[in-house]
Amino acid sequence: MDMKKRIHLELRNRTPSDVKELVLDNCRSNEGKIEGLTDEFEELEFLSTINVGLTTVAHLPKLNKLKKLELSDNRISGGLEVLAAKCPNLTNLNLSGNKIKDLSTIEPLKELATLKSLDLFNCEVTNLNEYRDNVFKLLPQLTYLDGYDKDDKEAPDSDTEVYPEGLDDDEDDDDDEEEYDEDTAPGDEEEEEGEEDEEENEEEEDLSGEEEEEEDLNDKEVDDEDDEEEERGQKRKRELDEEGEEDEDD
């Protein structure tokens, strides 16, 4: 897929000014040039053109807000002086796997005052004597070279550096997590609710059972009273009959 068509697909019905990240990896450039990218992408902060056959960055548009530029696995051998004018706020630049052979090629990068991370892995320049020391001297604004600082400490996640606002999101997530009961795992809440419902149902069943027993007892008491009254009536009747017989005899 050529770069122009890929850019059109990446827009997904958005306008160029709405795009902050653009990934064009593995598409085809036009004769080694960036094609289809214009200065309308004024909000662009991250651009990735890995393995697209670039030989130059001269055709980059003006991208004032661009912070991270991925150019690895291309055929760039020079012309980096345009980056200071095109991307003045660049902080991360990946040129690994390109045809950069000497320090003079990267010297123009000293004009990028905000550049903090540079990657030249798999470039011939890395084979020079005292390569790391010389690059840090040439570009004093650098913090990380090929993923490590001057003391060989590994760089943190580069995305965190490029998008520091992401840290706030993580803090918010931590705050949200603290609001939950640490002992309550996801799904436990529903189980607890289910157990409470079962307990309520059991209590209702017990109550209804007790009520039925009470009703049965009351019915039995009423039946017993009726039986006693009937017996008394029959007894009274017999007594009256006996009295009547005695009167007849007299």
Automatic annotation (TrEMBL):
GO terms for cellular component: nucleus. InterPro entries: AN32, Leu-rich_rpt, LRR_dom_sf, U2A'_phosphoprotein32A_C. It comes from Labrus bergylta. The lineage of its organism: Eukaryota, Metazoa, Chordata, Craniata, Vertebrata. Keywords: Leucine-rich repeat, Nucleus, Repeat. SUPFAM superfamilies: L domain-like. This is Acidic leucine-rich nuclear phosphoprotein 32 family member. The keyword Aminoacyl-tRNA synthetase does not apply. Belongs to the ANP32 family.
